Amino acid sequence: MTKEYCGVFAIFGHKDASRLTYLGLYALQHRGQESAGIAVSDGENFKVHKEMGLVSKVFKDEILDNLTGHLAVGHVRYSTTGVSHIKNAQPFWVEYSRGVIAIVHNGNLVNRVQLCHDMEERGAIFQSTMDSEIIIHLIAHSKKKKFEDALIEALSKIKGSYSLILCDKNQIIGVRDPFGFKPLCLGRLNGAYVLASETCALDIIQAEYIREIEPGEIVFINKDGIKSIKPFSPQKHSLCIFEFIYFSRPDSNIFGKNVYLTRKCLGKQLAKEYPVKVDMVMPVPDSGNYAALGFAQASKISFEMGIIRNHYVGRTFIQPSPKIRSLNVKIKLNPVKDVLKNKRIAIIEDSIVRGTTSKTRVRTLWDAGAKEIHMRVSCPPIKHPCFYGIDFPTKTELIADNCSQEQICKHLSLNSLGYLSLPGMLSSMPLPPEEFCTACFNGKYPITVDEKISKDSLENK
Amino acid sequence: MTKEYCGVFAIFGHKDASRLTYLGLYALQHRGQESAGIAVSDGENFKVHKEMGLVSKVFKDEILDNLTGHLAVGHVRYSTTGVSHIKNAQPFWVEYSRGVIAIVHNGNLVNRVQLCHDMEERGAIFQSTMDSEIIIHLIAHSKKKKFEDALIEALSKIKGSYSLILCDKNQIIGVRDPFGFKPLCLGRLNGAYVLASETCALDIIQAEYIREIEPGEIVFINKDGIKSIKPFSPQKHSLCIFEFIYFSRPDSNIFGKNVYLTRKCLGKQLAKEYPVKVDMVMPVPDSGNYAALGFAQASKISFEMGIIRNHYVGRTFIQPSPKIRSLNVKIKLNPVKDVLKNKRIAIIEDSIVRGTTSKTRVRTLWDAGAKEIHMRVSCPPIKHPCFYGIDFPTKTELIADNCSQEQICKHLSLNSLGYLSLPGMLSSMPLPPEEFCTACFNGKYPITVDEKISKDSLENK
Amino acid sequence: MTKEYCGVFAIFGHKDASRLTYLGLYALQHRGQESAGIAVSDGENFKVHKEMGLVSKVFKDEILDNLTGHLAVGHVRYSTTGVSHIKNAQPFWVEYSRGVIAIVHNGNLVNRVQLCHDMEERGAIFQSTMDSEIIIHLIAHSKKKKFEDALIEALSKIKGSYSLILCDKNQIIGVRDPFGFKPLCLGRLNGAYVLASETCALDIIQAEYIREIEPGEIVFINKDGIKSIKPFSPQKHSLCIFEFIYFSRPDSNIFGKNVYLTRKCLGKQLAKEYPVKVDMVMPVPDSGNYAALGFAQASKISFEMGIIRNHYVGRTFIQPSPKIRSLNVKIKLNPVKDVLKNKRIAIIEDSIVRGTTSKTRVRTLWDAGAKEIHMRVSCPPIKHPCFYGIDFPTKTELIADNCSQEQICKHLSLNSLGYLSLPGMLSSMPLPPEEFCTACFNGKYPITVDEKISKDSLENK
Amino acid sequence: MTKEYCGVFAIFGHKDASRLTYLGLYALQHRGQESAGIAVSDGENFKVHKEMGLVSKVFKDEILDNLTGHLAVGHVRYSTTGVSHIKNAQPFWVEYSRGVIAIVHNGNLVNRVQLCHDMEERGAIFQSTMDSEIIIHLIAHSKKKKFEDALIEALSKIKGSYSLILCDKNQIIGVRDPFGFKPLCLGRLNGAYVLASETCALDIIQAEYIREIEPGEIVFINKDGIKSIKPFSPQKHSLCIFEFIYFSRPDSNIFGKNVYLTRKCLGKQLAKEYPVKVDMVMPVPDSGNYAALGFAQASKISFEMGIIRNHYVGRTFIQPSPKIRSLNVKIKLNPVKDVLKNKRIAIIEDSIVRGTTSKTRVRTLWDAGAKEIHMRVSCPPIKHPCFYGIDFPTKTELIADNCSQEQICKHLSLNSLGYLSLPGMLSSMPLPPEEFCTACFNGKYPITVDEKISKDSLENK
Q: What pLDDT sits at residue B460?
């Protein structure tokens, strides 16, 4: 199963469109480190550059110089499958009967297999395994005269989560699926309009935040301004709660609300639900920082940064040889012995998936001389796979689906373990509980998933 | 003036010498991001690989596979001059009358100009502008029969700061100058000996810390074990206090003491000297984190991480075009508006050099909606250039040498500004005050500097 | 108008399939220097590697090591348009409803515009501007159940010249269009079958020549052996006579006959038609060598190599700056002054297209001190563009269409000029006159060309 | 033993100095394909670019744009040893007490070991194993005040063959050793002076040939014009006769005489000494072409080019796997079967060294169906190694030193074999016999060689 786990950005109406998109992607780099790409147009020409690698590696001065135009669309991609290939880098674009079109996608279609099969039967040839290519083929196959109608027809056939941006030579188009799984916001920079996954991408170019693109909304942005339509029947909102818990940047607002403050609330609630008597509260950096701050403040215990993160860890780190690996090298995170020695510690994790990294991490804290180690987790146990774009493993690999909390506590060699409750998590959110998808915690999937896909995810990918 | 501002590492007696050195350099990457290199020997062959770039870029699997041997010496380099070139990457090595020799150097010689001139007069030809090449030439020119004597003769001619590691095909040699400016420690990994600038490089390979190499000490490590000599007359110790304040990693111990805890003490002392009534204490990440924690704990005010650092910022970031630059882009650090809005803030800096980055940073906090901004600095005003390896600018550019504290406060648009006092800083240190060089604060230089160099630094580099 | 001007090679049934294909392409490099590619399969896996550049640059040891399989198909490409791009490199391949398929093509379709248009109307999306992609789309769109039938249906829709090789995971398929424009031969290497544009590609791997693939023939080669069908109605054979005159390698046999000897016959006939009284006969190297040998032998005049070719001239030669260009640099061919001085010279060209290079070349001979210069051309005047794969310019640029022989003689600053006659050329051929396409000489096109394409070629490309 | 086997070029007084040098090196590429380099100065700045690879690969537009100046010195290098490394690429250059100096060298010093040893004893450190570095060190070590005197002192210490060009920021200096082994000529391009190994490098930039630099001459070329000195005692001239036989380009004049015509004379003389009754005379391309033409003309037998050379053969050709190698692939040269079948052939080689390539080549002719094969060689048997810059193997590997002519004939599977006689060769030369070094034929070495070097060459390198 391919999962598209990504960040998207676009701007219309600025002569430095490609450089601003570059900056926007830079701010969204945490949403995908595998490949990056930008499509740009000046109304006449249309150019695309995409490559495997980080944004800063993919784009050099001379490349950006060449990407001239007043509209641009960009993408960073995270591959959730082992196979990653330039063929699957976005923007995906083609020249077809209506001219040129490019698309970037954040989300995951759940009926891709059926759609591909149907179109291949009719002679379609696919270049990639990307959801975004399917959408383009659906548009190309539509008999509707008007592009807008063809787009609506195509979107009405896809099922799943999608925050999309499309562009041709004259406009950019933002789309958010009717369930609203993934965030997409609208901003303005002087006269130009901006679309982005998170507000941190508006901040970096000093654009002003206007509003969220709403679930089920399509916005067309061109020289005539911005036009919004909502052609689909409304669905129960199903915002991805994991964007708040782990995925988004703390300095971003998503779905209209701030991530940092939300995480602090989670930490405070956690302190209420699972208080602990320790000498210090410390986060697993960096994602656990904010819940740990909330926990420490609520429990009036010292906050310490007992594990130091190496800032130069990149994707290209070479694995040490087998002999060295057994040394259990601390490439990324190093505990500070003089801080931890003989201390009772509460360590705050944002979430536990397989439990393997947590186990290793706890071991290094014992090695550093900790006296007691208590773990607190700022979300409930993850028991169900996600079909809408978060890369959880199959059910059998999720530790919380297979072990009791007690078993996990023992497995991780902890003195105590506390997970935030589902009601506690929802009450800490800045939006009403019914707005969120919580399928990974309680298995209530807002969109039915093809049986085959569902079965795969129970066993293995 | 060339300044060698670097990290060094070496290991003797392990068959994975080059991969362990790679890991050690990885941990020392913060000491130099310009170039990296490793020399390795198996007793017969001698190989060197060095390139411009980060450790993870310079070394690939196939390169490390080729660097076979049981002893290795590594280096990461920071160029303090505008000109950086592979010619100046280390290890510097040559084949000469005594065989092969390689050297890595952390520090700065103050009599390099005179030494070069003398040797060129006698027909010497230099390949680089590195201090380390001078040392090799001095060894080559020595008439002493025994290598050890030639080394001592050479070292007795150089003046300045130096923590060196040399190697030939059969041994590694660690040297620390008699003043002890720069750190160098000794560790053990099973039967192998390790030398490194900071203990974080021992941690990453799970080596055990043994002791510091002492000021004026030379250690020879080979198949017969470790031999130590102290051939120079003792000098007043002059440990670089800036290693504690800013330069070393918080998880390292240097000169035998922990950096994280020392910085917390600085923050606590600062809270005592300059208390402030605010809603939150926040650091300039990441170097201000630990003093800020100390300040917050001592003043019982909430600690918040109001500025978020982008983890993907690398060396290759492309400058935006002039038009975009005026947008004051927040590439590296982004303030969290919802956290800062309408708040009275104390922001903790580790130090102020030119004042330009501080000024910009304070502006972004005002823009984010702060109500009051008070800055506290965890060291005294820097008024004098460093000749021993820290890259401070010339005297005329040091803001504290040109402006009163009041003027600086106004210049940075702060509500208040407080610098830690010199006695306060020294009393927070884990070693006696007389152990340190504090020349950058009070101008008391432990080694006289050539007049020309000194004059240059008053004007421009 | 895209012209595909290329070399093709394939092998089935040898475990070193990709390395043998590499060698085959190496021998066919003169047929295309822009890009090279190989597709390979072991029956289960299917891999493709293609890049811009010469064969020796595109394929490195580690790449060939990875291309494991017992069947392989290869291609070298010459771009006749200014725009060259990796998108247009071959083999073109896709995964579609029938599995995987790859194709390489030598020739030029004349109804590509219409075919593309029709298929795009039905929703097809094209990745490239290559004829080979059209053929794949036609196969994918066919409703025929059996692959063989779908292939025949697809081929029956295309018009133009094509020598094709296709492959999937289990077989290679050779196709030659019913007119037989482009060569394609069959060979054997122990138990393996080989297909190649010219026999020099059999020689390099020491394969044995079996026979030509006949016009209109399709051969399927797989584990069951070789199967031949001829599903199309026969057409008047139209072998490209220019393959003998200029394009093929002299050591190749094409259409079953040797190129070197054919060119010698052309030279002998030329000596009969246009005798000349000179001190020496010399070729324009290297393509004029063999006609010049024939001419010299027939006229009993000394053969000399008065112009020396620089063997290191590659595609990447940097153009000198404008100031230097005026020096009329002799990068590629240098006349030997001491050989030419005060001599009466007959220089043998294989053909004259625009006349610009000939003009420059003649000037360098005058500069070298020649006393008389007589040019003899081993084919008739080229007056008509080629639509089947030879890169002649538009009609207005063909010097022979615009000037009389006398005018050309004067334009080139020659003492005399003689073109071989059309009957003379045909009588020198090793096959009957009616076998050949001679459209470029007499405008008799065997396949009618779309009006638009035809018109374009009258004006500009 | 390092052998420097190279081409040199320089120009003074032209604002496009680096591009003209690039062209000159392009023309001299046959003298060295391993590395290329150019040093350039505008009187103030001094820049060098050198890399492994062919001239066309090493220099790109942007690199030449950056090499601004009115004087330039260039070099192409052939490594005669297995080890080739960028460290040994030329120009070799240093900054030393007198400023900057660069040097390029064609030839081979025979007392390098002694010179190195002496200087290392005095503390000198060598970066490379190049003769040119030794010369620079000798200049640097000289106590003479004037540079000219230091240069003369340095040159008086070296023994061997050398055609050198040196430059600093203001002048270029040409030197030819007193024996005159290697060619070096002087030309003029408008007001600019040019130095080059062969006249083909003058031709390519349309420079006018002036004269040879004489044995033992030093020319200084700067803004004051050209100044010549001859500070050494004269020696018996010892021009390398192999430059005429094999090494130089046929379109070049060397030592003032044309190579093409000289080779034709060798062929004519060979026809006189060893006539043969055959159907055709053919060369081993391309070096045998001209002797073959002479042989064919003198014997009135048809000249044919029975072996075709692949023009795309470069240095990077990948070796086929062991299984394929046994196929005896014809990568570089392919015989034309239809031309050779049932023919009696005389094949002309320029020389036989080890005999291994000749053996393989003869086999391919038999395989192609030849009826008789007679080989004629345009120089006498090579029986002695060269110490002055030609890469012959050690004595034991020279086939003519170990086998009689009869044995060689049989070993190569020939019907007959004829070597040109020593008097025959000398009488075909355009200069008096006593001008040449013929050591490789008769062992009469003009300069005594260090015993150790001499001994090495008897055994192995």
A: 37
Angle at C263 (CA atoms; ends C260, C265), nearest 5 degrees: 115
Amino acid at B162: Y
In degrees and rounded to multiples of 5, residue B200 shows phi and psi of -60, -25
Distance CA A399, CA A412 (A): 11
Sign (positive/negative) of CA torsion C315, C317, C321, C324?
A: negative
Look at B123 and D126 and tell me if their CB atoms are within 8 Å: no
Residues D339-354: b if buried by 16+ CB within 10 A, e if exposed? bbeebbbbbbbbbbbe
> For residue A97, which of C32, C123, B214, B30 has the smallest C-alpha distance?
C123
Question: Comparing C333-347, C423-437, D79-93, which segment has the lowest mean pLDDT?
Answer: D79-93
Chains A and D touch (3+ CB pairs under 8 A): no
For B31-87, list the strands marked E by DSSP.
35-41, 46-52, 71-79
Tens digits of per-residue pLDDT, C222-237?
999 999 999 999 999 9
All residues of chain D having their beta carbon less than 8 Å from the beta carbon of residue B124 are: 96, 123-125, 140
* Predicted complex ipTM: 0.91
Of B94, B126, B142, the CB nearest to D95: B126
Separation CA D135–CA D379 (nearest Å): 34
Q: Which helix (H) or strand (E) holds D410?
A: helix D405-411
Tell how far CA A285 is from the center of its chain: 18
Q: Are B384 and B443 contacting, i.e. CB atoms less than 8 angstroms apart? A: yes
The Cα C198–Cα D244 span in angstroms is 38
**Which member of B56, B335, B339 has the closest CB to residue A314?**
B56
CA dist., res. C353 & res. C197, Å (int): 24
Domains of chain B: residue spans and CATH: 4-235 (3.60.20.10), 258-310+330-433 (3.40.50.2020)
User: Do chain C and B touch: 3 or more Cβ pairs under 8 angstroms?
Assistant: no
B3 band by pLDDT with thresholds 50, 70 and 90: very low
Contact D25, D51 (CB under 8 A): no
* Average pLDDT score over chain B: 91
What's the N-to-C CA distance of chain B in angstroms?
A: 6
Cis peptide, bond prior to residue B91, ω within 30 of zero: yes
User: Looking at CA atoms only, how far is residue A43 from chain C in angstroms?
Assistant: 21
Please tell me which residue, D461 or B299, carries the higher pLDDT value.
B299
Cβ atoms B30, A312 nearer than 8 A: yes
CB atoms within 10 A of CB D438: 21
Residue D428, SS3 per DSSP: helix
Shortest Cα distance, chain D CAs vs residue B119, angstroms: 9
Strand D257-258 and strand D280-283: the pairing is unpaired
Q: Rounded distance, CA B357 to CA B377, Å?
A: 14
pLDDT digits (tens, 9 = 90+) for C394-411: 788 899 998 999 999 999
CA distance B200 to A336: 9
More confident residue, D157 or B2: D157
Buried (b) or exposed (e) across B265-291, using 16+ Cβ within 10 A? bbbbbbbeebebebbbbbbbbbbbbbb
- By Cβ distance, the residue of D120, D121, D136 closest to B125 is D136
Query: Mind listing the pLDDT tens digit for each residue in B159-192?
Result: 999 999 999 999 999 999 999 999 999 999 999 9
Interface test with D, best of B118, B125, B128, B137 (most D CBs within 10 A): B125
Dist. CA C168–CA C50, nearest whole Å: 17
In B, which residues are within 8 Å of A16 by CB distance? 320-321, 323-324
State whether residue B141 sits within 8 Å of chain D by CB.
yes
Q: What is residue C459's predicted lDDT score, i.e. its pLDDT?
A: 42
User: CA B178, CA B237: separation in Å to the nearest integer?
Assistant: 7
- A6 is an active site residue: yes
pTM, to two decimals: 0.83
